[in-house]
Amino acid sequence: MKIMTTWSLKPGAFSEAVKRFLAGEATPPEGATLLGRWHSADLSIGFTLTETSDPTTLYRASTPWADLLDLKAYIVIEDSEAGPILASLKK
Question: Fewer beta carbons below 10 Å: N end or C end of the chain?
Answer without folding.
Answer: C
